[in-house]
Write a structure and sequence with these properties.
Helix content: 25-40%
Radius of gyration: 29 Å
Order of helices and strands: HHHHEEEEEHEEHEEEHHH
Number of strands: 10
Number of domains: 2
Mean pLDDT: 81
Number of helices: 9
């Protein structure tokens, strides 16, 4: 009788212990699952954010590399004297040129950053496009385009959205390497200087100078708006951006400009 009662008591104790132990484990498991779910909802991973803007990251990275490469070859690169005075700098890593009959077409995508008192803006994403008279037998090619905006008026033109490269805002060929006194005089009133970058070689190039040529810059707000929560012109105006929400790599172009041309020289 006693043994039977003892067995019943021990079984009851074992049941209580089991409920306490396994119930606690299940509670801890549920708590861990809830915490993981909350972290996933409140803090999206940087990788998932980057996956939304792969082209933007690629453009910023390519443009930053071009700036870095040219800064390391001062004798055949962008004149530092001009870069230190530029109010904004645009780099379009891949501009494709195609010819149909007697007309050539140019289309490319890139970034523009404007100078601030303490550095440069994050890259605003823009399209470069245009057309003009061309040799029908010329083969198409892809090259980079670099634009230096030398005056505040040139940068202010972005406030209206797109910027046609014509009239006072036409892009004239910029000099390469060190500047001569004669070049300094010729460029005194220039608003936009232009270059082409092909096979590692930089050359001055005119855009919008010829009567049959038409080129323009237009904001790529399909990237600017979802990425920054604002339009390209607002980025160039220096409107504050929450950098903590940006994917890694977006600031590569800004970082390159800051590294080599951080201080303005007027």
């Amino acid at each position: 009788m006693l043994n039977s009662s003892l067995r019943i008591a021990l079984a009851a104790v074992a049941t209580v212990v089991s409920l306490l132990v396994f119930g606690d484990c299940r509670a801890q498991s549920r708590l861990a699952q809830n915490e993981a779910s909350a972290q996933k909802k409140s803090a999206p991973s940087q990788k998932s954010t980057a996956n939304k803007f792969p082209h933007a990251i690629e453009r910023a990275g390519d443009a930053g590399r071009i700036i870095s490469l040219l800064a390391l070859v001062p004798d055949s690169g962008l004149p530092k004297e001009l870069m230190d005075k530029a109010e904004a700098v645009g780099v379009f890593p891949e501009v494709k040129k195609e010819t149909a009959y007697f007309t050539h077409f140019n289309q490319g995508y890139g970034v523009i950053s404007a100078r601030l008192e303490n550095g440069w803006t994050l890259p605003a994403f823009y399209n470069f496009g245009g057309s003009g008279y061309g040799n029908p037998f010329t083969r198409g090619k892809t090259s980079g385009v670099i634009l230096l905006f030398m005056t505040k008026d040139a940068v202010a033109a972005f406030e209206k959205g797109g910027v046609p490269l014509k009239g006072e805002k036409k892009a004239i060929a910029g000099p390469v390497g060190s500047l001569t006194d004669e070049q300094k005089k010729e460029l005194a009133g220039a608003q936009i200087l232009a270059y082409s970058y092909y096979n590692g070689k930089l050359n001055g190039n005119d855009f919008g100078k010829g009567f049959f040529s038409s080129f323009a810059l237009n904001p790529d707000n399909k990237i600017n708006t979802p990425l920054y929560g604002m339009k390209g012109r607002e980025v160039l105006a220096g409107k504050k951006v929450d950098a903590t929400s940006l994917p890694s790599g977006i600031s590569a172009y800004q970082d390159a400009l800051q590294k080599y041309y951080g201080a303005a020289t007027k």
